[in-house]
Amino acid sequence: MKSKTKKRLRLYGKQKPRLPKPVNAKKDRRSGFSLRLIQEADSRFSVVKTIKRRLEQLIEDAGCDSIQKEILAGRAVFMAARLESMEVEALEGVEIDWGSYVQACNCLNGVLTKLGLDKHLGHEVIKLEQYVAGKTEKHDGRHAKERKHRS
What we know:
By secondary structure, the protein is mainly alpha-helical. It has a domain at about 40-120. The chain is built from 4 helices and no strands.
């Protein structure tokens, strides 16, 4: 006689916990597509909270002033989260596909470049003419001090 026991949900091993399926996803009958946005994701999960927080921070840091930049910011946050997941799996000894990892890194780099985050360095960028003029002034000043010191 078999006893019916309830299976425990394990947080490790073969059975991984999964997010529940949406209850009222209204699908387009022709294509099977349903529009779902990050803002609609279930905020009870810490992963969703983290991604939403990172998205808000990136939008603020990048100075997103258009919907196109907000879309790119969403892609960047998702790619960063995917890369972090792959890195954790690699550290835990799981074999990862290095080709897709490198491709994801390049994708993230491209999206961040398009957002213009490489331009926000925190210091003022000077023009070449200003740099050369400043070097010339310093150069002339140093020689003048050396000439004065030798006399």
